[in-house]
Amino acid sequence: MKIIDENEEWMEEEEEELEEEEEGEKHQPLSARVTKILIFYLVIGFLGWNFFNFIFSSNFCNIEEVIIKGNDCLSEDEIFYKSGIQLGKNIFKLDLKKSIDSLKQEPRIKEVEIKRVIPNKIIISLKERKAAAIVHIGEEYFFSTKEGIVLSKIDRPEEGFALPLLSGLEIDEIKIGEIIDKPEFRTALESINSAEVILPKRFCRVEILSPDDFMICNKDDTLKVRVNRPEVIINKENLLREALEKIEREKLLVEYIDIRFKDSLVIKLKK
């Protein structure tokens, strides 16, 4: 019992001392309390200023590496150059929005994200637009997306290109990054893609004769199918296969197969 009493007395003394300190603080002059608060914030501000001055001026936070992800067509050197990022520059002085906007000027880049990895790395993650066709406009050839966005210019396509070639668009010229807004472009591309579903690897080119008239051709122009809408190819799959069998069986010299007519198919023979 004696020990318990002594502990209780000690705890009571401690509580009294704390209460006296709190009372003392409450009765401090307002100016003293304001001075303490000001000193506290001055110390915090001084430490903060020195910290930010260190990270903005120290070589410790200079960019040493740029990691690029998601590129298939564009090279890392092209992306790095277009980003405007400079090795050795302080990582916190890099204008991320400016670099992103600069990269988005490249038509082949669809989406881009840039992240700082403290202390000295930058990660560029991007998603590229994919070429869906080669388009012949005027005397030039271009890679284009399925939406009609012109990605880049190429030399005259040679054998081995996996993409369909579209020709006959009534466009005199077009620039990189512009959009082919002709409805017949989309219809032509969908038509040759539908033909590819029915007869894989048989067709490589589609000529636009008019906004609703297309000639789908194979590599050496020995097989041509004239169509007005892509869905007609799918709907007349059986008729088209029967026509091809007849042509091969009878060794017919055919100018083209016409499937534009409702519920019928016409084989136009060469004269």
Task: Set out the fold topology.
Blueprint: H1 2-26, H2 30-57, E1 65-69, H3 76-83, H4 96-103, E2 109-117, E3 121-128, E4 133-137, E5 140-144, E6 150-154, E7 165-167, H5 183-198, E8 205-210, E9 213-217, E10 224-227, H6 230-235, H7 237-250, E11 254-258, E12 266-269
Parallel strand pairs: 1-3, 4-7, 7-8, 10-11
Antiparallel strand pairs: 2-3, 4-5, 5-6, 8-9, 9-10, 11-12
Short description:
The protein has 271 residues and is an alpha/beta fold. It is built from seven helices and twelve strands. The mean pLDDT is 85.
Task: Tell me what you see in this structure.
By secondary structure, the chain is α/β, with parallel strands linked by helices. The chain folds into three domains: 30-59; 62-128, membrane protein fhac (Ubiquitin-like (UB roll), Roll); 133-269, Cell division protein FtsQ/DivIB (Rossmann fold, 3-Layer(aba) Sandwich), CATH 3.40.50.11690. Helix content is 39%, strand content 24%. The chain has helices spanning 2-26, 30-57, 76-83, 96-103, 183-198, 230-235, 237-250, and strands at residues 65-69, 109-117, 121-128, 133-137, 140-144, 150-154, 165-167, 205-210, 213-217, 224-227, 254-258, 266-269. The strands form two sheets. It has a nine-stranded mixed beta sheet with strand order 6-5-4-7-8-9-10-11-12. Strands 1-3-2 form a three-stranded mixed beta sheet, covered by helices on one side. A hairpin with a 2-residue loop joins strand 4 (133-137) and strand 5 (140-144). The chain is elongated, with a radius of gyration of 37 Å. The mean pLDDT is 85.
